[in-house]
Design brief:
Strand content of chain B: under 5%
Order of helices and strands of chain B: HHHHHHHHHHHHHHHHHHHHHHH
Number of helices of chain A: 5
Largest sheet of chain B: none
Largest interface: A-B, 60 and 67 residues
Radius of gyration of chain B: 22 Å
Mean pLDDT of chain B: 85
Number of domains of chain B: 1
Largest sheet of chain A: none
Helix content of chain B: over 70%
Order of helices and strands of chain A: HHHHH
Shape of chain A: elongated
Structural class of chain A: mainly alpha
Distance between the termini of chain B: 45 Å
Number of strands of chain A: 0
Oligomer: heterodimer
Structural class of chain B: mainly alpha
Number of strands of chain B: 0
Number of helices of chain B: 23
Distance between the termini of chain A: 49 Å
Low-confidence stretches of chain B: none
């Protein structure tokens, strides 16, 4: 293999890593903002509901349902950012005491387990969501299609699986180990 | 087989650094495949269902409120006020730390936010006054967990949901224990300051107190609004948490002017990430707890304990040890969701009031938050203040012993928790 071929191969590898990193950054950026807007919407609906109930005796009938659906959106949306920044709550004090190769092996195994379980549950989620969509099941208060909030679970876990896999090829991104505040 | 699925597998996965939510999901999926007759789809339904509880909405809202208060000048004003009042007492700085953490605890419900907010503001003065950095960080670390014990408390909300108890009544039960913890810590720091020969500061001046009170009047109204609203029956805890967010944002941005709208947006983003970190564990733990409940394990455990014929005092002692150990490795929300379905029936069988047991669980898990080697607040303090963990482990020992003493008192004198509840019933 010539030097030029080696350089081409290296830059192609770096190019793939660069694309993976940009993709991960973009997903984390967008998901945090969606979650932030969801959190603000919860506060706003709660405020309007309390004001309506105590000052005008007119609470919003769908407030509770909407806030719960928004909470699901916040959790499974910001999950992508938590995953990309490797900020999941974990206990890895034992791992820290191992030699670097064993530590890397343990972290890789933990990542593979996370990818596997998130993929399995995300797949099951899409089965459930498809059924709910097929039945056109609606919520009680808002008569909102329940497959929409329920799909947050599958999308969130699916993105978690993808971003965890990407982190295996983009190893230096925001390494934050241990129990996070 | 059950023991392998419910305990050995999760412990092994945690040991290799698997995220807690993924560990719980693996245990649930494996349990369904090996032990249950439910389809795997049930994991999705249980995970979604565990977030579908109105009382749980208080958790993200209290996290956001705590973050805004910490960054928007409310916490700082509280410290200034407490300092102006206790400035003349020997040990005034540690006292101010404890007092501020207690008031902050009555507003926010997030222990890590409390450690960050109060610690960043008081630690430089504690060091300058001769208390030493390790004592200062240990004090902040141990005092931060008052936030878990003084209502409103996120673990209490989660216990109330898991054990099907009233959040408001559990909050009422937590008032006296919170005050006992604050008082015991205050006595300890005063004695320690005397032994260390730290001089007392200037006696409080009326003008300084009035000036600090004027500056912090909006900060002081927050706990009155939140707790008064909850106990007065005006708001549910969830509504109060939402009101706390609006109130703290308005005060920080428009009145104190210590936060711009851009800062507020950044705080919202930070909080939403923290919410996801905690609530994904709650969601996965809900599925795990569902599997434990449907597997019949709690009933089996109750029957086993019943057969042992343990006296109630001994049973409570055993449960305390178990909770302390679990609390030192697991986050309180996850620990509560996993253990409540197992332990609540055992405690009920022994005649322990579920509210009293809720406080025992909360205090144990609060201690676990700063119990070496895994306590969450230790890691938070280590990350925020860059203090070496071994020194921090030694520094928190006196506080740990004080908390243990209080835990025993609360365990064996149920009236301390149940009397305020009886008063309001």
């Amino acid at each position: 293999m010539t030097q030029a071929q080696t350089r081409d191969g290296e830059s192609a590898r770096l190019g793939v890593i660069g694309i993976a990193r940009r993709f991960g950054d973009a997903v984390a950026w967008a998901s945090t903002r969606i979650a932030g807007l969801g959190l603000i919407a919860i506060v706003a609906i709660n405020g309007v509901n309390v004001t309506g109930r105590y000052f005008f005796s007119r609470p919003i009938s769908w407030a509770e349902e909407a806030m719960l659906y928004l909470m699901v959106l916040v959790v499974f949306s910001a999950l992508a950012s938590v995953t990309w920044n490797n900020a999941h709550i974990r206990i890895d004090l034992l791992l820290e005491r191992l030699s670097p190769p064993l530590r890397r092996g343990g972290a890789a195994l933990a990542a593979v387990i996370t990818i596997a379980v998130c993929t399995v549950v995300a797949r099951e989620s899409f089965t459930v969501v498809s059924m709910l969509h097929g039945f056109d099941q609606r919520s009680e208060a808002m008569e909102f299609p329940v497959w929409i909030p329920q799909s947050c679970v599958g999308i969130g876990l699916g993105l978690t699986a993808i971003l965890t896999a990407l982190r295996l090829v983009v190893p230096c991104h925001s390494e934050t180990h241990g129990v996070q505040p | 087989m059950s023991a392998a699925v419910f305990f050995v597998l999760p412990i092994s996965l945690l040991a290799i650094g698997t995220p807690i939510f993924a560990t719980l999901m693996v245990a649930t999926c494996t349990g369904i495949m090996l032990l249950g007759d439910a389809p795997l789809r049930a994991v999705h339904t249980a995970m979604f269902g565990s977030l579908d509880a109105f009382a749980l909405l208080a958790v993200p809202l209290f996290i956001l409120a705590g973050d805004i208060m910490a960054k928007g000048g409310i916490a700082q004003r509280l410290i200034e006020l407490v300092m102006s009042v206790v400035g003349g007492v020997r040990g005034s700085l540690p006292l101010a730390t404890i007092g501020s953490a207690s008031v902050f605890g009555a507003m926010s419900g997030s222990s890590v936010a409390c450690v960050a907010a109060i610690g960043k503001l008081t630690l430089p003065s504690l060091e300058k006054s001769g208390y030493g950095r390790i004592f200062g960080v240990s004090l902040v670390t141990a005092t931060g967990v008052i936030d878990v014990i003084i209502p409103p408390s996120i673990p209490m909300i989660i216990y109330a949901i898991a054990a099907q108890q009233s959040v408001t009544e559990l909050f009422l039960a937590g008032i006296v224990p919170g005050l006992i913890v604050a008082s015991a810590l205050a006595i300890y720091v005063v004695i320690r300051s005397r032994l260390q020969g730290i001089p007392s500061g200037a006696p409080p001046r009326r003008e300084a107190v009035v000036r600090a009170a004027k500056r912090s009047v909006w900060a002081l109204l927050a706990p009155i609004l939140i707790l008064g609203g909850i106990y007065g029956g005006v708001f549910t805890p969830t509504e109060a948490a939402g009101i706390a967010c609006v109130y703290s944002a308005v005060v920080s941005v428009l009145i104190h002017r210590e936060m711009t709208l851009a800062d507020l947006w950044k705080t919202v983003l930070d909080s939403s990430v923290l919410v996801a970190q905690i609530m994904i564990v709650v969601s996965a733990a809900g599925a795990y707890a569902w599997l434990i409940t449907t597997s019949g394990l709690p009933q089996g455990l109750v029957a086993f304990i019943d057969k042992l014929g343990l006296e109630t005092w001994l049973l409570l002692l055993v449960l305390n040890v178990l909770l302390l150990v679990v609390g030192s490795v697991l986050e309180p929300p996850a620990a509560i969701l996993v253990l409540a379905p197992l332990l609540t029936p055992i405690a009920a069988q022994a005649g322990v009031d579920p509210l009293h047991f809720g406080i025992i669980v909360t205090v144990n898990l609060a201690i676990g938050m700063f119990m070496p080697p895994f306590g969450l607040n230790l890691f938070a303090a280590h990350a925020i203040f860059k203090t070496p963990l071994p020194e921090l482990y030694r520094g928190v020992v006196p506080f740990f012993l004080i908390y243990l003493g209080i835990l025993m008192l609360l365990t064996y004198v149920p009236a301390l928790t149940l009397a305020p509840v009886a008063l309001f019933r």
